[in-house]
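Q: Hand in one record:
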Amino acid sequence: MTTPNDIARHSAFYASPISQFLAADDATVLGHLAGGSGLAIDGAQTEAWKEQVRVLKQTLPGVDGSLFLEFDVPRLGSRIDGVVVANSAVIPIEFKVGEHRYAKGDYNQAWDYALDLKNFHEASRELPIFPVLCATNGATPDTGWQRPHADGVYPPIKSNATSVGDAVRSAIALAPSAPVDADAWGRAPYRPSPTIIEAAKALYAQHSVQAIARSDAGARNLHVTTQCVEEIITRSRAQREKAIVFVTGVPGAGKTLVGLNIATQHLGQDDTHAVFLSGNGPLVAVLREALVEDDIQRQRALGNTPERKGVVRLKVKPFIQNVHHFRDEGLRSAAPPIEHVAIFDESQRAWSREKTALFMKQRKGVADFSMSEPEFLISYMDRHKDWAVIVCLVGGGQEIHTGESGIGAWLDAVRDKYPHWHTYISPELHDSEYAAGKSIERLGSHAHVETQYALHLAVSMRSFRAQKVSGFVKAALDADEDKARELLTEVLKTYSVVLTRDRTLAKKWVREQARGNERYGLVASSQAQRLKAYCIDVRVDVDPVKYFLADRADTRSSYYLEDAATEFQTQGLELDWTMMSWDADLRRTNGRWSYHNFRGDRWTNVHNADRQRYLLNAYRVLLTRARQGMAIFVPKGRKSDATLSPENYEQTSQYLQSLGIPLL
C-alpha cells in the first residue's frame, strides 16, 4: 500500500491518495507538514494548516485522486498550499484562511501558480490546469468555470470553505477521464526559466543555479559554462596565475545568469571574493532594489523584524556594482581591489580610449589619461601580486551607445600590456557578430591563449516559449528574409508575435495576453521622436526600478503602458509581453534599411556607420525583450504632417508582414 509521502517525497511536504488523507489522523498530516519545512513553525502557520486540513477533509469525500500539500514552486520561491490531481485535471488550490474577500493580488497568485505548472512542470504541460482561490470566509463564490485559454489553463475560480469541494469536482468533470499517474506527476522534473530578476534573488538567497534553471539543453549548457569558468578560477588560484575569460552567447542565453552564479558562489569568501560589474546602470539599480526587497520579504516570512532598507542596501552593494564606480575606486587608490574575481557584464560596451580620456578630463580633472576602460580595468586587477581572474560576458550586436569599444579593446590590452595574463576565449568570438576577429588575429602566437568550447551559450533561455526568437530577430534585421520566414514559422508555434497599425489595438492585445502577475510594458527606440504624436514620448525620464518592479497601482510601472522604456532602460532585463513601437528612425526604403535622426522639424539621414550599427542594435535589443510575445506597432502616419509621412512607415510594415508576422 502506498503510504503518505511515498508520492513525490521531494516535491511536497505531504502527498498521498485522497482516500488515505481522509482516513489519516490530523496530527499525522500536520506532522508531515511541519517536518517538511525543516524550520521552526510559528503558531499562525500551524493554525492555517489546521484549517486547510479541516476544510479539505470536509469537502473532498468521494473525490478519487491524489493530494499534494505545500507543493514546491522553485521559480517563484514559494509553495502551492494544495494540489489535487484527478483524472487528467491538475487543480492547484491557494488558501486564504479567514479571508472574507477575494483580493486581486490573491487571485493573481492563483493564476501565477497555474501558469508556472503549465509552463515549467514537465508532467503538467499537456494537462488542463484548474486554479482555485479559496478565501475560507468568502461570500458569493463562483458557480462555474470560465472558458480555458488556448494553453489549457482555466481562469481561477473563487471559492470558500464550503464550495471548494464543488470547484474540485466540477474541474474533474470537465477534464478528460484519462487518469494521471500521481506518483509520476509528483516526481516529474520542474524546469523553470527565471527572469534575470528572479534568478538574481534566488542565487543571492544561496539557491543553486540547478534549482532555478531548466534542465534542458540550455540549462545544461549553462551548467557546463559555469563549471568551465569555475575550473579556470580554481586553477588560477592554485597556480597563482592571472586569467581573462571571454564568455559569449546568443541574446537571452544566460550570460548574466552565469556571471551572477559565479559571484554568488564566492559571496563572503575573503580569499576568492567576486563582484558582478555592469556599466548598465538601469540593470544594476533594478537588481539591487529587487534583492533588497526580497531580503526584507524573506525576513518577514521567517517571522523576523527586517532590517532597515538602508542597512540591507549596504549588504547588497558589494555583490552587484556599477563598473564605473569600481573603476573610480581604482583611481582613488593605488591598492588592488578586494576582489580577486571580477565579472564584467556586457563587456563589449566598455568605453574606448577616446571616451574614457574625455570623461577623465571633464569629470575627474585628469588631463593626461591615455587608457581605454578595458586597459585600465585589467591594470586595476593586475595590482594583485598573486592571482586574479576577469570574466568578460560578451553580447553580440549589443553595442548601443557611442564610445563603446567592443571586445577587441580587451584583447588588444592583453596583447600590448599584459601578455602574462592567460586568455580563454569562446570559439564564437571569431564570429563577425562580436567584431573581434582582427584583435584575435593580432594576439597571434600569444603563449597563453586557449579556446574553450564550453564558454559559448548557444540556446536562448529568455523566451522559454520559443528558442528561436533571437535568431528570427537577427535574420529580420539582417534582411535575410528566407531565414527569417523559416524561423518565424517555428517561433509562432509557441510564441505570439502580431503586427498592428493601431496603437489602441496594440495596448488592448498586450493587456489581454497577460495573466496573473505576468509583466507587460511599452518599449521604443530612444530615437523614436515622432511617436510623441501617438502619446509615446521617449524623452520622458523613465525610472527603471519603478518600471520593472512597481505594481499595477503605480503609474510609473510598466503595467500602465504610458512610459516607454528604451534600449537603455531595458537592455539585460525582460518583460513577459511587450508593445514594441516602431518609428521612422529605422525604416525600410527600397528594399534596405535606412537610418534617420529627428532634428527639430525634419528627419535627417544617418551616414556614420557606427551610429547606424547602434540604431540597428537598439531595435535588436527591443525586439528580444519579451519572454512570451509582443505586439509590434507601426504607425500609419499622417499625410498632413511631413514628419509623419505615411511613406516613412509603409515599407517597414509591408516588410514585417512579408516575413509572416500576422496582422492584428
About this structure: The chain has three domains: 12-187, 196-457, 469-658.
